[in-house]
Each structure stands twice: as C-alpha cells, then as structure tokens.
Amino acid sequence: MIKFGTGGFRGIIGADFTKENVQLSIQALCNLAKRQGSEKPVIVGYDYRFASEYACLWAAEVLAGNGIVCWLYGEPMPTPAIMHVVQSEGLDFGVMITASHNPYYYNGVKLFMKGGVDADVAFTGEIEKECAAIREVGTMSAEEGEAQGLIRKVDFKRNYLENIKSFIDLQGIQNNRCKILYNDLFGVGAVGLRPLAAEYGIARFDCINDKRDALFGGQLPNPTRAMMLSMRDAVVSGGYDFAMATDSDSDRLGILDEHGDYVDSNDILACLYYYLVRYRGMRGDVVKNCATSILVDKVAQKLGYRCHEVDVGFKNISSKMLETDALIGGESSGGLTVRGYVMGKDSVFSASLFMEMVIRMNKPVSEIVREVHAFAGYDYSIEEETLTFSEIGQVRRRLESAAPEFGDLRRASHFNSNYKYYFDDGCWVLIRMSGTEPVVRVFAEMKSAAESDGKISAVKKFFNAMEQDRVV
Length: 472
Description:
The chain is of the alpha/beta class. Helix 1 (19-35) packs parallel to helix 2, helix 7 (189-200) packs parallel to helix 13 and helix 11 (295-303) packs across helix 14. It contains 16 helices and 21 strands.
C-alpha cells in the first residue's frame, strides 16, 4: 500500500520505490486532477538521488498518457524550486522526485498543491484511496509525449533565484569580507547557492561535495550535528566566518560558527526571527512545530508577538502561517520560511538570510547566538534519544492508555503520532513515533541537562514496563 507521510511517499528503491508505485501514485493524481476540473500543466522535478531522472520520466509518461501537459524540469533542482513554479505560474499541482534527507537507498514522491504548498493530509489521503482502487495506469512514451507537446522541458531557475534575491537586502551586504565554507552533501543546494553567493558578493565562498554521488559519500545526506562537526577543523584552519550545509534536496540547513561549534537549528530559527524584527523592522508572529525549542516562544514574547505550535510536518507550519499572517515559521530539523515566500522550507533561501544576518549585524555567529539567548532570557537544555521497538503499534496503544510517571506534569497534548507533555516554565517532553521506521524519538527541554536526562529516563522506564508486560 502506498502511504504518504509528512514528507510524501518514500520507500526503499526496488522494494517500495518502484516504477509501478511511482506511476500508480501519479495516476491517482491524474484522476483527482480531472475530477477537480484542472486543465493546467503539472510541473515535475527531481534531485540527484539514484534513478530520480528516470522516475521523473515515469511520472511524465503517466501525465501524458492521461492527456495532462507535463512541464519537465531539464536539470536537478531543489525541492522548493518546484514549489516556486507551482506558486508563480499559478499551477494546481507539482511533483518532486526525492526522498529528502533519507539514506541513499531511498527515493520518493512529493506532491504540491495550488499556492506551492505541500499537499495536505486530506489530499494525500484521497491519493492513497485512489491508489488502492486503480486497476489500470494510462501511459504514453516520453518520445510520443514530446512529439504531441504533452511533455515539455522547462527551466525556471532564474525566476527561482530572482525571487530569493527579492527578499535579501542586497545593498546592505555589498562589499563584505565574509568567508564561508559550504558543504553541499552531494545534493542540489549548490545549484542555487553558488550563483547567489556570487551575486551577493561573498568575498570567499568555498564549496565541497558539490558533485553528484548517488551514494552521498556513504553518509546520510542531512546536516545533523555529527555531520556538521566533521567540518570543525576545516572551519578553524581555513579561517572561515562560519560553515553551512544543506540536505540532499535543499530544504534543511545546518550551521557551524567561527569556532567550528554547532549552531542548533532552534538557534537558527530564533536568530533569524530576532534579526528580521530587530534589524529589518519586520513584524509578525512565529510558527513552530511541537519538536521545536521554547527559545523561539521567549523571543516572540519579548518582541511583543506570539508563537503558535503545530504538529510535525511543514504543511502544518505553512497552513498556520497563512491563518495567522505570521512572519516566520520553522522546525527543529532545520527548515523555515518567511511571509510572502514559498510556503515550504528552502535552505537556499534560509542560507541567504543567514548570510545577510551575519554581514549586516557585523558580529561573529557565536555572538549573535549569545545576544539572542540573552534577549530571550533563555538557558534551557534540550536532550534527545532514539528508542527502537519491534512493534510501533504497541507503543501507540500504550501511550493512548497511559502516560509516563513524571510527577510534576501540568498538561498533555496529542499531535497525531506525537505525544507532548508540559511542565512549569514552558519545559516539555515529546514522544514522537516515526512514520517510516520502528523507532520512537524522545525530546526533553528542561532547565538543565540533568533534568532533561531525568525526563528521558522516566520515558524509558515507562516503555521498559511495557516490554516486560509483553514478555509476561
């Protein structure tokens, strides 16, 4: 069965991600598009993952076979670049072939709706039902589709880059002396960041791992803390002002400061929000997902605004931003956007904003982070641990019937597969079940590392009791 999670349909190449399943999901999209009376082209893009360019053609063949014009991107592009085409060209739907930050043996299909937003749960639910009911997939060869004008190569790259530039204070960052080390992680971020860095006049912008490698150098193509810290020595010895990296489809951002120390994604979001309001004079609330630090809540409060909390999945962030006219929205995994930009996370865009912030504030990154923490009065500690289980369904049932024994619990909330527990002073614990792996991720944000570790220990004790009951 094809299932669409928070980031679309993903699967192991050759097992779940197959030509049959790709074309089945696109046939479902065609059926729903026809029912809605849509007669507009559908844009299809892809990144550097293994077989992505072939899967792109598989999708195009189904669109053409159903009489729907397919705009086929002529080169690998970041996911948000495809979202931008849907938004700027007034399309009803878009398709991206990618598995985002997943390991090299995964690939997937992301769907976008009118406005350039991620397909919502209601729509992907309809896609899943349609997939289960389809008995025949209509296709047309790529050659015939091109001959009939149903498959057309397009290039909106310059439009995408110009849109990003329109949000940047180009005059304020000219004649800078900024030195940046950028790790593309064998993804598509350099497609946008290399030309933009040149147009921003960045004094030194050194790219590494910016060629295609479908194995991603044997590493996870995700700017995690461990991956970023592997660049520490290069940052210090090279005299860089900071380093950054983006994931394989360029919607997550990672940062190291001038000392080679990791800048948490929560800090990136809070610093950019602080900068946009205090230094750029912009106004508005902030939206975060339930796994994101209370730091941004405190920044919003001090700035005179409100922080809105939603479920994991950027579609939930973008929806709440539109509802509240929020200035910025982001998540703890490193994705964010701002009002007026594409309602999806874009690390080419967020990296551009980060560069502008460092140049205009004219301070080392570590000092900017300290300034924001001091402004917010924030000195909490976030800890995280991943637990593996043989049966996730049993974990869900356990959480639905009981809660860990925290003692000082104030209230609890349920965000679909995420269970969050709140304590005094904004402290919290989140139990998040993965939608693709048999794992549970536990987050705790408390006044000290010892307190956070204690909360995680309480969760582990809770689940250990469950395992013991199962054995008995």
